[in-house]
């Protein structure tokens, strides 16, 4: 990044930040909306079965959740993570708060994968009657999202966490 003109570098960082924030907003919105749809639509299959209206609602449910996950949530997650990775190097952010943010984003990725598992299982099992409550995805995902937002806005000094780590984690590999 040192070879770029300062104005060009600032524009590139601004563009990456815009892309990252827009993708994060879309990803977080999907991580809230998809479990809510699983829960709300899931009540239909618990109450009644067999009618044409229920079949039509099930087809609608499958299209919305499937394409919402593979066509919206997953691409947003990939773009957010890719733009965020680009920002690490473009903006040269190597602080401890950023490591904590990466850990929370990894947790968000796990919740995202679990939502995908719920969507796939709801299709294979033809409903949600045997699945865990999608509310767990909200209970796990929302605090992770809030933690990422807090870390990015507050940028707290987490140097005290180094005292909690074992010595081998603080030393360079191979004695370098």
Give a verbal description of the structure.
The chain is 76% helix and 0% strand. The chain has 176 residues and is mainly α. α1 packs antiparallel against α2, α1 (6-47) packs parallel to α3 (96-124) and α1 (6-47) packs antiparallel against α4.
Category by helix and strand content: mainly alpha
Quote the distance from N terminus to C terminus: 25 Å
The poorly predicted ranges are none
Strand content: under 5%
> Can you give the helix content as a percent range?
over 70%
Largest sheet: none
- Name the average pLDDT: 86
Count the E strands: 0
What is the count of DSSP helices, taking H or I runs of 4+ residues? 5
Spatial extent as radius of gyration: 21 Å
* Element order: H for helix, E for strand: HHHHH
Apparent shape: elongated
Task: Write a short abstract of this structure.
With 176 residues, the protein is mainly α.
Key phrases:
176 residues; mainly alpha; 76% helix; elongated
How are the secondary structure elements laid out?
Blueprint: H1 6-47, H2 52-90, H3 96-124, H4 135-154, H5 167-170
């Amino acid at each position: 990044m040192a070879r770029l003109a300062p104005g060009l570098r600032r524009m590139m960082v601004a563009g990456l930040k815009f892309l990252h924030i827009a993708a994060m907003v879309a990803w977080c919105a999907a991580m809230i909306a998809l479990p809510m749809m699983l829960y709300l639509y899931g009540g239909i299959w618990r109450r009644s079965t067999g009618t044409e209206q229920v079949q039509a609602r099930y087809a609608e449910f499958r299209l919305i959740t499937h394409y919402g996950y593979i066509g919206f949530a997953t691409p947003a997650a990939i773009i957010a993570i890719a733009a965020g990775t680009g920002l690490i190097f473009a903006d040269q952010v190597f602080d401890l708060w950023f490591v904590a943010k990466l850990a929370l984003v990894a947790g968000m990725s796990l919740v995202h994968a679990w939502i995908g598992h719920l969507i796939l299982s709801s299709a294979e099992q033809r409903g949600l009657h045997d699945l865990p409550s999608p509310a767990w995805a909200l209970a796990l995902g929302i605090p992770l999202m809030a933690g990422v937002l807090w870390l990015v806005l507050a940028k707290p000094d987490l140097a005290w966490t180094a005292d909690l780590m074992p010595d081998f984690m603080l030393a360079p590999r191979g004695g370098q």
